[in-house]
């Protein structure tokens, strides 16, 4: 490094501790050490001049502004969370009410709700004739495509909710099983349910829906009655709609 | 007695330490950039608020000062852009009277300060970054997006211009030979 390079470097970066600069300063015989000393003193003055007084309490004011902003942000965030929670709660309540409304208007619910006024029919034991059974279906503009199951003790046209239905009671193995056939009321799936002490099954048929209900009847009896009415309504060769 | 730190999260502690350690130098840098005490205070406030929001970007304590200087430069540029359209242009060498009003600001330091204020911003800014921020020429180049050689020239010329402005005044270099 020559003296010109040294002085240019020191002129730009007087506080540099570059070993090359230090080495030149310590070995130069042409006044570079004195130049360096003057540059350091100039830099001392420059640093002192640039160190303007800082306003009192500056750091505290900065921290106060930050803490205040943060606190305000927390309040806003809390309000947003509360609004979201309230919205969620309202959504859940709405969904719950919607579900409850839908549930109360489901065929199983309507079928079970229909039963208290028809309990006496469960005690009937005298079999009805095929003609009486067919007449019951005709009352609802429906016809049987196969023979009705044996042991039918009650046939009546009823309203299940807003659905027109043929109300049947079949006694099998001395157990009364209710069948509510709602022609024209379509459902998509066959489902089993237990509701208010009633075991039941909703069966989707091609021309309507059959709901079978019993209190304490065996599964075999329920199955046999359901199968018997499905075959009677749709014919024994008809494809099964929904679940088997 | 040990300071009570329970309940204060590490981010908050880091921030407070940073404010206490660096706000003075940052204010001084802001002052030399804006040449106004009130604008400098606003700039420092804004800078630290922005720093708080982006504190996770700060990787190590060593880089805190250059990082804050960079934020402040951007804030100043933003402020300048905003003010450019809605202020009446004044003589840019006019500085608030209070800046040099107190007794401790009289004498040599006051003259040097006046000379620094007369430097063009392209010299004053890197000089302040170097003297107050302790940054090397390379670091200034990186922070300002310039070539290192250009920054070295600016730093050299800044000092030369200062010496010219101070002329025969009893500045260290002249008086203490």
Description of the molecule:
The complex is a heterodimer of chains A (244) and B (177). Chain A has helices at 3-12, 19-27, 32-50, 58-104, 107-114, 130-138, 219-234; strands at residues 152-160, 163-172, 175-183, 191-195, 198-204, 208-214. The longest helix of chain A is centred in the first third of the chain and has 47 residues, at 58-104. Chain A has 2 domains: 3-104, no CATH class; 118-234, Protein Transport Mog1p, Chain A (3-Layer(aba) Sandwich), CATH 3.40.1000. Chain A has 244 residues and is α+β, with helices and mostly antiparallel strands. In chain A, helix 1 packs parallel to helix 3 (32-50). Mean pLDDT of chain B is 81; it is low at 88-106 and 170-177. Chain B has helices at 10-34, 37-53, 64-84, 108-118, 121-131, 137-144, 148-166, 172-175. By secondary structure, chain B is mostly helical. Chain B is globular, with a radius of gyration of 18 Å. Chain B has 8 helices and no strands. Chain A binds chain B through residues 8, 11-14, 16, 34, 38-39, 41-55, 58-59, 61-63, 65-66, 69-70, and chain B through 15-16, 19-20, 23-24, 27-28, 31-32, 37, 41, 44-45, 48-49, 52, 99, 102, 104-105, 108-110, 112-113, 116, 127-128, 130-132, 136-137, 152-153, 155-156, 159-160, 162-163, 171-173, 176-177.
């Amino acid at each position: 490094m020559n003296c010109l390079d040294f002085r240019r470097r020191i002129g730009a970066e007087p506080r540099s501790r570059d070993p090359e600069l230090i080495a030149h300063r310590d070995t130069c015989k042409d006044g570079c050490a004195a130049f360096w000393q003057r540059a350091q003193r100039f830099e001392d003055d420059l640093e002192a001049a640039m160190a303007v007084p800082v306003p009192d309490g500056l750091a505290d004011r900065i921290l106060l502004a930050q803490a205040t902003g943060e606190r305000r942000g927390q309040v806003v965030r809390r309000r947003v969370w509360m609004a979201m929670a309230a919205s969620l709660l309202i959504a859940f309540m709405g969904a719950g009410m919607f579900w409850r409304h839908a549930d109360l208007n489901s065929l199983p619910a309507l079928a079970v709700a229909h039963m208290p006024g028809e309990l006496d029919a469960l005690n009937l034991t005298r079999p009805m004739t095929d003609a009486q059974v067919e007449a019951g279906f005709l009352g609802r503009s429906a016809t049987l495509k196969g023979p009705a199951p044996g042991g039918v003790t009650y046939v009546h046209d009823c309203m299940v909710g807003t659905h027109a239905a043929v109300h049947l009671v079949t006694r099998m193995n001395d157990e009364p099983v209710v069948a509510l056939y709602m022609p024209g009321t379509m459902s998509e799936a066959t489902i089993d349910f237990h509701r208010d002490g009633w075991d039941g099954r909703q069966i989707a048929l091609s021309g309507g829906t059959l709901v079978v209900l019993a209190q304490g009847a065996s599964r075999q009896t329920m199955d046999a009655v359901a199968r018997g009415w499905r075959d009677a309504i749709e014919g024994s060769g008809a494809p099964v709609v929904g679940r088997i | 007695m040990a300071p009570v730190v329970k309940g204060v999260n590490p981010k908050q502690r880091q921030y407070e330490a940073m404010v206490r350690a660096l706000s003075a130098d940052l204010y001084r840098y802001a002052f030399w950039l804006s040449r106004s005490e009130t604008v400098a205070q606003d700039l420092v406030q804004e800078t630290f608020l922005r720093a708080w929001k982006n504190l996770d970007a700060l990787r190590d304590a060593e880089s805190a000062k250059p990082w804050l200087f960079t934020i402040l430069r951007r804030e100043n540029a933003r402020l300048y852009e905003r003010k450019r359209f809605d202020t009446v242009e004044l003589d840019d060498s006019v500085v608030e009277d209070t800046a040099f009003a107190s007794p401790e600001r009289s004498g040599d330091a006051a003259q040097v300060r006046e000379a620094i204020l007369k430097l063009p911003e392209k010299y004053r800014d890197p000089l302040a970054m170097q003297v107050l921020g302790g940054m090397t020429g390379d670091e200034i180049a990186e922070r300002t997006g310039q070539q290192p050689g250009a920054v070295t020239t600016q730093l050299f010329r800044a000092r030369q211009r200062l010496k010219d402005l101070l002329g025969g005044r009893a500045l260290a270099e002249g008086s203490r030979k």
